[in-house]
Amino acid sequence: MKLKTRSSPVSELPIRSARDIATWKTITIGTFADSLALRNELDGKGCSVGGQAAEILARPKFTVASEKTYLELVDLSAAQLGFTSDTVTLADVYASAQHLGLELAAAEVGPQLRLQYFDQPVGEFLTIGMDPIKTWSGEPVILNVANGGAGLILIGQDGRPEANVPVTTRFIFVRSHQPAASAEAVGSVAAILRP
What we know:
The chain is of the alpha+beta class and about 200 residues long.
């Protein structure tokens, strides 16, 4: 494996629409029969799996797609979503991304991205924008695809809506193939629906 560093920093300029963001990477999901086969592939390829990540991969709520599907992923920071404070809640990041027309990723995206991104630069941590899955003790966890310098790993992190993350945190969301609602359209619908 070759040491790779990020060639250029991600722009921190605020974005106004999902159309303003280039597709970062296209991955395939639905290529494994079940979550055990997916976990075995991670082990077989030498990808480490942290304790919380391993726990949620074993939970019944963690499922894999039944059909092979290509997904366009975008990579953006909370700062690019327009947040200017030092930290922001996970719920606010998700709401802002969805308002722009991005979608939360299926849980399978985390381990699939780990398997399809072997040239990840050292020091890069990518938080998967996904619905959290609860551990056996009830803690909501989301996934993070990382290369902390000791190798490629899939780890879990706090997935509570009120969890604070630095605005520099980089998130992976899925590009929707549905057109995003414009602010004018949302306002028009709201006006029509008012009593």
